[in-house]
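Let us begin with a simple case.
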Amino acid sequence: MRNLKLILSYDGSDFSGWQVQPNVPTVQGTLASAIGRITGEKVLPQGSGRTDAGVHALAQVVTFVTESSVPTTNFPKALNAILPASVRVLEVAEMPAEFHARHSAQAKTYRYRIYRGSICPPFLARYVWHYPYSLDESAMNSAAARVTGEHDFTSFAAVDPERSRDGDTVSNVREIYASAWERFGDELIYTVRGSGFLHHMVRNMVGTFILVGKATLQADDVTRILQAQSRSAAGPTAPASGLCLVQVEY
């Protein structure tokens, strides 16, 4: 048996998220089907986390076990010939048996893009949140700094049974190593790196930071929201289109 690691990039716009579901297209299901056509095996590849419907990935890490003798150097070309153009396998490597895409992960980085120009270019629309309205971007950056460190992120977690994007866990405590907004031309980009993320956590934080930018909330309110440990204390969920999984560290 071989334990293979894939680095996967995908446009999530046309998928109902990572996790396989009946009667809807998912990244996991699409990849499983492609692997099955090559190896003749029924496998369920495991991702480093479950991205939501419409969320993208530059470097999702995936593992699966196979008895296939196909060389690792041949797998990317073979898989990419089957997969839709919106999903690309960038790299395949053989790993020790104990390596697991989700359980072995030490940190993840997500990026959220907001397009601030008055007219959003059509070729960007699938990958940004178009928000041309007035915002205090400095206040938003101050608010973003308030989530760094180890906290219970219940206030920023979706209220559903699948609270974790990283696996089955009951704890909503996570550690955020870096959290900041930067302006690049017409784009305002939020980058956050942490030990792991809950369901909708990044998008809920972005929605809250927008309220700070609108002066509906103050930057210091983020600390109060964290302490409340209640989803109703935080802002709305930002659209999925602007979010992308950038990196997974091991």
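The second case is a distinct protein. As before, the sequence precedes its structure tokens.
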Amino acid sequence: MSPSINSNIVIDMQNISRSFLEGEASFKVLDNINLQIQEGEYVAIIGQSGSGKSTLLNILGCLDNHFQGDYKLMNKDISSYSDKEVSKIRNTIIGFVFQSFNLIPQLTLSENVEVPLTYLGIDKEERHRRSDEFLEKMKISHRKNFFPTQISGGEKQRCAIARALASHPSLILADEPTGNLDSRTGEEIMEIFNILNAQGKTIIMVTHDTKIANSIPRTIQMKDGFIVP
């Protein structure tokens, strides 16, 4: 059943499938995915390479709209929106954190945090204020004028999280956020996500690490394009 307008269901997927062409053949990566996630949930998506978890995350994040089925994000029917409208939804509702950090090397940490705020049309003074606020929350404000090449992997990921939070998103999507970090730094980053969830943020995290998945309240296991019951 589709959620009502007052529902606290953030994500509602019904019969989502996704296929890719390989030469003249069609290869199905996702097969009839049904998924609902409530506001404030903390969810791990786990599965082997090729299971479809990254493809699912791309659809969840409105980075891929070439799917079959129905997807409602915050009660918005994604398939009914233009690319420009989907881009706006993505920039205002979702904060992304990636394994490779995706920081722009030519920009300082402060400037990196401000990039998505610029796309949202937020004025310069407010961009600076938010950048300072979230770098402080991530405990790297002392590095704000450094460039990504001058800091550690853990600091890069803290900056990436600050950037994801600066637009005040309703949903945080994290793709292997500890994958390029040593175990101790990875634990520190996971503690940040735990705190964010305790503060009410909805978080969906793709991981191949069963230890991390077991520490997250809800786990969705994928195999061969299906969600394992």
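Confidence is low (pLDDT under 50) at residues 1-6. The domain at 42-65+87-227 is CATH 3.40.50.300 (Rossmann fold).
Keep these points in mind for the review questions at the end of the chapter.
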